[in-house]
């Protein structure tokens, strides 16, 4: 059992030790209890310090948000969670703009809606759900403008 766990953990250790990233953690905001509220991670190279990642927490210690930065702008995968630990939303950013799929869930874990973003604006078909997972309606967007809406 120990040998199996070591074999599984070794690639992870190697991956992180060879990544070349020198991230510095900085707690930038705390709750009155002293628990971290917001932690930023900076990529440090010589005298250059660039924001690479941000993590926010609820007072109970659960993550509320996590995402990456590139050149000071949101970039890469971002996720938000409810205080109970269930995922609230996720999506991707490029150069500070929301791009691609953007699913959103209810606090109980059921799907609330899903849609796509193009340059930070709703685009394509968005699907909204009723309790129980049945489709409530579909709304079509083009460049952030509603084109049509179809109730189910």
What key attributes describe this structure?
single chain; 152 residues; mainly beta; Histone H3 K4-specific methyltransferase SET7/9 N-terminal domain; 1 helix
Structural features, described:
The chain is mostly beta strands and 152 residues long. The protein has one domain: Histone H3 K4-specific methyltransferase SET7/9 N-terminal domain (Single Sheet), CATH 2.20.110. The protein contains 1 helix and 12 strands. Strands 1, 2, 3, 4, 5, 6, 7, 8, 9, 10, 11 and 12 form a 12-stranded antiparallel β-sheet that branches. The longest helix is centred in the N-terminal third of the chain and has 16 residues, at 2-17. The termini are far apart. Residues 1-20 have low confidence and may be disordered.
> Between the first and last Cα atoms, what is the distance in angstroms?
52 Å
What are the segments in which pLDDT stays under 50 over at least 5 consecutive residues?
1-20
Order of helices and strands: HEEEEEEEEEEEE
- CATH T-level topology: Histone H3 K4-specific methyltransferase SET7/9 N-terminal domain
Instruction: Describe the main β-sheet briefly.
Output: 12 strands, antiparallel
User: How many helix segments?
Assistant: 1
CATH class category name: Mainly Beta
Overall mean confidence score, pLDDT? 88
Instruction: Specify Rg, calculated over alpha carbons.
Output: 19 Å
Strand content: over 45%
User: In which range does the helix fraction lie?
Assistant: 10-25%
């Amino acid at each position: 059992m120990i040998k199996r766990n070591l074999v599984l953990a070794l690639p992870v250790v190697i991956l992180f030790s060879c990544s070349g990233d020198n991230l510095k953690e900085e707690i930038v905001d705390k709750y009155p209890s002293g628990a971290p509220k917001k932690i930023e991670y900076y990529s440090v190279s010589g005298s250059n310090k660039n924001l690479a990642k941000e993590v926010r927490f609820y007072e109970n210690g659960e993550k509320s948000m996590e995402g990456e930065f590139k050149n000071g702008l949101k970039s890469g995968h971002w996720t938000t969670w409810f205080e109970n630990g269930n995922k609230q939303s996720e999506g991707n950013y490029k150069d500070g703009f929301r791009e691609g799929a953007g699913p959103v869930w209810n606090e109980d874990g059921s799907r609330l809606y899903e849609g796509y973003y193009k340059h930070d604006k709703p685009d394509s078909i968005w699907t909204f759900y009723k309790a129980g997972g049945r489709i409530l309606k579909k709304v079509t967007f083009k460049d952030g403008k509603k084109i049509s809406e179809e109730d189910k």
